[in-house]
């Protein structure tokens, strides 16, 4: 069998022919390839000259494939697909890791940090599953979860403390300027209490103003902490949230801490993953990165 492929046209010319045969338009082919229309036309003329076969019909309104060109385009497209598949097999596949978090944890803490992770670890394809329901590792194909609660979480799971939250009361500077900063239990009743699903207000009020009856302030309730935070930013009232979730809003001046009290809970955020984890090195990298981010927050 003769060595090499002496009659094979240049791969660049074949690539341009394949694109041009799909678009039947040299301008559109040039746009896809990122070259000039003249460069495409030149490569096609050279290919036809080397093959001594006309591949395109030059029509008044664009191009058409000749019978030879139509058959050749099918063969060339198949050959390029084989080359592409072989090339992809040579490249290392990205490590995939799915992390389950709550929507508030994702939007208020994790997403603002993800750009740094992607820059530092381009080989890891990190996928977020943001849901309020408890994800199952096997059925939802979850490798790692951030769960809020108290130990234990169940058999067959590894657990590491990620972050101990401190709950603070926050409101917009405009609202505090309008109504005055509440320095007493009675003054607090002038404000709307913005609740989330955790319903921190009764216990927080008791810790802030011991001996007083339950607050009778107006209430608005949300099923997600992030919504209560956005309502506070909009000047709708005072909300209670983990300081980690409002740190950026406090730093930007969108929110102010109403009281000095930072209320520590008996619950915390934990990293949880199956003891028989399959993700290997990627799981370790993501866990280390999350712990580092938590320590710096």
Automatic annotation (TrEMBL):
Signal peptide interval: none
Keyword DNA-binding annotated: yes
InterPro entries: LysR-type_TF_proteobact-type, LysR_HTH_N, LysR_subst-bd, WH-like_DNA-bd_sf, WH_DNA-bd_sf
Pfam families: HTH_1, LysR_substrate
Domain HTH lysR-type: 9-66
Entry keyword set: DNA-binding, Transcription, Transcription regulation
SUPFAM superfamilies, alphabetized: Periplasmic binding protein-like II, Winged helix' DNA-binding domain
CDD domains registered for this protein in UniProt: PBP2_GcdR_TrpI_HvrB_AmpR_like
Family assignment from sequence similarity: Belongs to the LysR transcriptional regulatory family.
Name by which UniProt lists this protein: LysR substrate-binding domain-containing protein
Lineage, broadest ranks: Bacteria, Pseudomonadati, Pseudomonadota, Gammaproteobacteria, Pseudomonadales
């Amino acid at each position: 069998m003769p060595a090499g492929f002496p009659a094979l046209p240049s791969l660049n010319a074949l690539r341009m022919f394949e694109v041009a045969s799909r678009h039947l338009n040299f301008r559109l082919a040039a746009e896809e390839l990122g070259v000039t229309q003249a460069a495409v036309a030149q490569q096609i003329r050279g290919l036809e000259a080397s093959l001594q076969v006309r591949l395109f019909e030059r029509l008044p309104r664009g191009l058409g494939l000749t019978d030879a060109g139509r058959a050749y385009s099918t063969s060339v497209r198949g050959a390029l697909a084989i080359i592409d598949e072989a090339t992809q097999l040579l490249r290392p596949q990205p490590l995939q890791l799915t992390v389950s978090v709550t929507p508030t944890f994702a939007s208020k803490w994790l997403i603002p940090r993800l750009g740094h992770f992607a820059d530092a670890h381009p080989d890891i394809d990190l996928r977020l599953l943001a849901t309020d329901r408890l994800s199952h590792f096997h059925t939802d194909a979850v490798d790692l979860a951030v769960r809020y609660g108290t130990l234990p979480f169940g058999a067959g799971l590894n657990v590491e403390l990620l972050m101990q939250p401190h709950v603070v009361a926050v409101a917009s500077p405009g609202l505090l300027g309008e109504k005055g900063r509440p320095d007493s239990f009675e003054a607090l009743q002038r404000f709307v209490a913005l609740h989330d699903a955790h319903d921190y207000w009764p216990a927080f009020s008791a810790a802030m103003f011991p001996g007083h009856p339950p607050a009778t302030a107006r209430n608005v309730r949300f099923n997600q902490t992030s919504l209560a935070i956005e309502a506070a930013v909009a000047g709708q009232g005072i909300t209670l949230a983990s300081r980690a979730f409002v740190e950026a809003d406090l730093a930007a001046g969108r929110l102010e801490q109403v009281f000095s009290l930072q209320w520590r809970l008996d619950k915390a955020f934990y990293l949880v993953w199956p003891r028989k984890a399959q993700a290997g090195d990627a799981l370790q990298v993501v866990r280390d990165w999350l712990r580092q981010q938590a320590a710096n927050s």
